[in-house]
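A quick aside before the break. I want you to see a complete sequence-to-structure record at least once, exactly as it would be stored in a machine-readable document. Don't worry about memorizing anything.
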Amino acid sequence: MGRVETILDVLDEMFPSAQCELVHNNGFELLVAVMLSAQTTDESVNKLTKSLFKKYRTPSDFANADLAVLEQDLRTIGLFRNKAKNLKTMAMMLLEEYNGEVPSSQVELEKLPGVGRKTANVVLSVWFDVPRIAVDTHVERVSKRLKLAYLNDSVLKVEEKLMRKIPMNRWSDTHHKMIFFGRYHCTAKRPNCDQCKLKELCRYPHI
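That is the input. The structure line, written in C-alpha cells, reads:
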C-alpha cells in the first residue's frame, strides 16, 4: 500500500464522521462563519454566531448595519474591525450583484470582499457539495509533516499537490479529516506522536 493510501485509511479509521464544525443553517451563514474563522478557532466563532445570527439574519441586515456597532458585535474574536468591514461590504456586494444569494462559483466567491481561496473552497465543498480541498493551518501542517508537500511549499502549492495525490471523490471528505487530525491529534505543539499510526511516515520533530 502506498503512502497516500495508508494516510487516507488511517484518517478514515480515526475520524470516520469528520465534518465542518462551524454551525450554520444556510449558505450565507456558512460564508459569514468561515470569514469570521480566520485566525480564530471554530469554537470561538460558534459562540459568537449563536447570538450574531439572531441579530443579523440576512445580507441586508449586515449591509445596513452601522459599522461601529457591527465591530462591537464581533469584538470577542480577533481582527474584528477588519472582519466587520469585510462582512458589511461583502453583504452589500451580494445584494447588488447576486440578488442576495451566495454564488456557487470559485471566481464569483473570490470577488467578494474578505473571501479568499480557502474560504471559497470551504463554501463550495460544504454547502454546494463541490469537490474541494481547503488548505487551512491544520491541513498545511499535516501535509508537510506527512511529506505530502515540501516544507517551503505555498498554501496554493500544498492544495495543488493534495489534489493530484488524492482521488477527487475523496477531496472534501479528506479535507475535513485532515483538519480533525491536525486539530485534535497532530497539533502544532506537543502532537500525540506516541499513539500515532502515521509516525513512520512523518518528518516531525524535524519541522
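Two observations worth writing down. The two ends are 26 Å apart (CA to CA). The chain has two domains: 3-18+133-201, 27-126. We'll return to this after the break.
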